[in-house]
């Protein structure tokens, strides 16, 4: 049984059909990436999993449990963390408060402290900025905070939506390094990226989305070597 | 000029009393606006309902003989807690029944619904009151009679009660919003609902809590008003709510500290105008024009600082 499984998922964004019968699986311990051009349905796929966009047809199964019609705040409690596109840091909360809200479902104060220390071990920069407002941080720092905030939930599945968007190449390297590190520590990751080259390099498997349907799928290395994909997304 | 100086102490006392009342009602407007971008016009009627519920509880307790034997402060706390709880639930219920089904509708439709709820509450209170007595104007038993007189200055005991309770409520709200988990969730929801829900925050629950807190404070303020001014009717919430809303805009709508400051400022300005308008304009304008004065200030502020005195201009971030 797969860790996460999407069966024939169809979803609409207003009147537009954003996803057409998507089939997708993620196994425990994998990094799976979703690539494709703008508007292909990558973000929508993540949103149907976390519950921000309702599933019209089909089903989403997580650890054997049907989570198709769960609301976002219920899905996250099951251990599915979703780092949204554009990072979406709360600009008027301090960095510390941004982390605290990530652990909103946790009552144990000591546990929150422990998790915060763990976030600092991945992102020492975040610790230096603790009392600053989230909105005053640089793009790279905000991305680190966004991932750190998601780690505060201690998720089993981490979904990242375009973590490299708008960042300098050196910061992108750092972010991908962290993604690899998190995965080495046992985190299952579903990664949406426009930066197809970097994403396929780090991922075990990948799916290529085109106008709401899955066009290709396979091992990261295989997709990297596929000339049609290279031509379409890596040129 | 001497007239201004002579009346100043009394203006300050009366202005602070009225200002504290505006300030707390303004909080209710600003909290709801901050989270839903909805101007909850029924909030003035929540205040009015609080004044009536508080008066009814007070009359009830008098009938039971409690008021005669127990300290007035204890009675006041009891009335505030009962009224705050009931108006809090009233506000929460209004959101659940009238606003939530319209969450995705245009803002204008919700606004008109809010005005409808206002009328409904006015008429319900009037109806209930008239079944109890022939008149819908009610006198609230005075809980803190008498006053201090310091060199010609008249300080009613109830003034002290209003100001102290009001300050305590504002401090408590500041603490709630800035230091508690639910306050944090409230600020997060006000900034970004979708992302807040990705943090396991139940957005609907946070909105309910916001309405409860705002309405409980509004209702408790109604009690303070009734105790201090002694006479209430089902229509006190309209003009008072409008002015409290003005105070919220003055301070920068959505800004909690701004609402407190705006309320105090408006109360002081209004009382200043009431005492001095006739002297300043050499009898041209009487104190009846105090509202014109207050609203003229509002218009001036909005012309030169549209974001309000304490609001920050919204910066669109990409």
Task: Give a quick set of tags describing it.
heterodimer, A: 235 residues, alpha/beta, Rossmann fold, six-stranded mixed beta sheet, four-stranded antiparallel beta sheet, 10 strands, B: 318 residues, mainly alpha, two-stranded antiparallel ribbon, disordered C terminus, ATP-binding (chain A)
Q: How would you portray this structure in words?
A:
The complex is a heterodimer of chains A (235) and B (318). Chain A is globular, with a radius of gyration of 17 Å. The model of chain A has no long low-confidence stretch (mean pLDDT 94). Chain A has 235 residues and is an alpha/beta fold. The N and C termini of chain A lie far apart (37 Å). Chain A has helices at residues 42-50, 72-75, 95-102, 109-122, 124-128, 139-151, 169-184, 196-202, 220-225, 227-234, and strands at residues 4-13, 16-26, 31-36, 57-62, 65-66, 80-83, 157-161, 188-193, 205-210, 213-219. Chain A has a 6-stranded mixed sheet with strand order 6-7-8-3-9-10, with helices on both faces. Chain A has a 4-stranded antiparallel sheet with strand order 2-1-4-5, with helices on one face. In chain A, strand 4 and strand 5 (65-66) form a beta hairpin. Chain B is mainly alpha-helical and 318 residues long. Chain B has helices spanning 2-36, 43-64, 66-69, 72-99, 107-132, 157-179, 181-191, 193-198, 203-229, 236-251, 256-280, 290-304, and strands at 138-139, 147-150, 153-156, 231-232. In chain B, helix 1 (2-36) packs across helix 10. Chain B starts with a helix and ends in a 14-residue tail after the last helix. In chain B, 48% of the residues are buried. Classes of the chains: A alpha/beta (235), B mainly alpha (318). At the A-B interface, helix 3 of A face helix 7 and helix 8 of B. Chain A: Keywords: Amino-acid transport, ATP-binding, Nucleotide-binding, Transport. Chain A: This is ABC transporter ATP-binding protein.
